[in-house]
Specification:
Blueprint: H1 14-26, H2 29-32, H3 56-69, H4 78-91
Helix pairs in contact: 1-3
Length: 96
C-alpha cells in the first residue's frame, strides 16, 4: 500500500463512494475480484485507485482511463497487460 493516507470505499462519503462505483463499473469482471496477495491481515486491500482518493476528481479520471484500457476487446490480453505492469513495477522497484 502506498505510504500516504487513503480513503477506502468503506470509509468514503457518499460522493467519493459514487466515484469508486463509477470507476469499478468500467472494469471487466475479472478485474473486480479481490486479489488475495493484496489483502491485508485486517481485511483491507491495497489499491492503486485508493491511492488517488484524496483528490476524487483526479481519481475519477485516472480510474476511468484504466477501466477503459482494461476492456477485453482491446488488442492486449489481460496476461499481456499484467506482464507490462509487472515489468514496469519491477523496474521502478514498486510492490505493484
Amino acid at each position: 500500500m502506498p505510504w500516504i493516507n487513503v480513503i477506502t470505499p468503506a470509509q468514503a462519503d457518499a460522493g467519493l463512494r459514487r466515484i469508486y462505483e463509477q470507476i469499478y463499473a468500467l472494469y471487466p469482471p475479472s478485474y473486480r475480484d479481490a486479489v488475495p496477495t493484496l489483502t491485508n491481515p485486517d481485511g483491507s486491500e491495497d489499491s492503486i485507485i485508493a491511492a488517488h482518493s484524496l483528490i476524487p476528481q483526479a481519481m475519477l479520471h485516472i480510474g476511468a482511463a484504466l477501466g477503459v484500457l482494461y476492456q477485453p476487446d482491446l488488442p492486449l490480453t489481460r496476461r499481456q497487460q499484467e506482464m507490462i505492469a509487472a515489468v514496469v513495477s519491477a523496474q521502478n522497484r514498486c510492490f505493484y
